[in-house]
Amino acid sequence: MKGWQKPRPAWVARLLGLGCLLGGLSSPALAEGAPGAQGLQLEGFGTLSAYRNDDAVVAARPGERVRLASQAGQWRADGDTVLGLQLRWSSSDTVEWVWQVQARDELSRGYRPNTEWAYLGWQFAPDWSLRIGRQPLPIFLSSESSRVGFAHTTVRPMSAVYGLNSSEPVDGINASWSGAALGGTLSWDLGAGRNRLTVPRGRVDTQALLASALRWQREGLALRLGGAAFRFDLISPGLEAQLQALSNSPQLCLNCSEVLPQRARTRGVQGHVINLALVWEHEDWTLTAEAMQRGGNSVFNAKVQAWYALLSRRFGRWTPYAAVGRSAHTEAPLGLQAAPGSPEASAQSLADLDRSLQRPWDRRIELLGLRWDCFEKLALKLQLERWTATRDRSTPRDGEIRLLPNSAPWDGRLNLLTVSADFVF
Predict the structure, then answer these.
(1) What is the rounded CA–CA span in Å between residue 88 and residue 104?
(2) 121: which strand partners?
(3) Which domains, from first to last, does the chain contain?
(4) Distance CA 108, CA 66 (A)
(5) Exposure on the CB side of residue 226, measured as CA atoms within 13 A
(6) What is the pTM of this model?
(7) C-alpha angle with apex 187: 186 to 190, nearest 5 degrees?
(8) What are the CA-CA distances from residue 351 to residues 252, 333, 337 (Å)?
């Protein structure tokens, strides 16, 4: 779907009107399956969304795996827009088969439908269950519902944290336990798997991912601790050729042959993530906070810390909300050294590469929004985000913010406006 050069209020009205129609046609009988019910059930969710970035220097998109981006006030409808359908077959009270298909704009396949979930679930004991097949692992608070817009107060999970980490499903296994503990309910997940996904640099092949999450809930308070350890290969022939050429050119770089294989490896990259989350609900107020830390043995899994806090207040069908978040990369410089007598342009290119590999793209996000639950299974949202670069405003990047080489000076700020209609059925 192509964007428009100018805002179209009539188009926005048609979008919201279509969302209301879909919400009015949603079938409550299909939206939620009765626990233990046998038979075949059809469930689904979707988002119709449009967004615009007002900055004329940099382009912005809701996620780095979205193909295109908005710039200079251009409206786009390819960021959060998604349609998901799920078939659930309960062959007994303890066994179910789940198949979920999603269609969304994505780097490698556009809007072609793709199988997101395909697993067998088995509750083999009163407190224990097992899932085998393609599924999300619960590393973060919203890992299992990241694209179900209706499940979130905001348009999407907060980019300060979720823009740094993939919530893509894996082919693997996950065991879950739940029981009473410490005056509340305690649950524990342990899962492992592997996956493959396309990223702007090329492709990431994750050979091993081990994830665990511990959650405790009592009345309106929920606490969560999640973690993961993983190993992957970054498949990017162009990038690998560039790094290899530097390693083989001592006349340009004195220490590239030593530093790059250690700090900028693309194969056998190992890393870990630790995540902490809190959800507190009191009457019509909800506070959600999440923090994470990531580290590893390569700059292509750069060390970073991030957090956000979201506060919302419900007034009947209306829910205004506000959030603030921040991410800070802590990866140290590689210390690449230009050879004596090398051209000044080569020395500058080496310094620019060192800077880029640190990924010094720290930012702060301030967010205001309004959610209107106009039907039982339909929510309309209006959200404004202010993104501010807090460390570097000139190094080229191709993530959620696209800053091209030799672009005009950027002041480090942009505003992202999003309207959306989220529904379930």
Answers:
(1) 21
(2) 96, 131
(3) 9-424 (2.40.160.10)
(4) 10
(5) 21
(6) 0.88
(7) 145
(8) 12, 10, 8
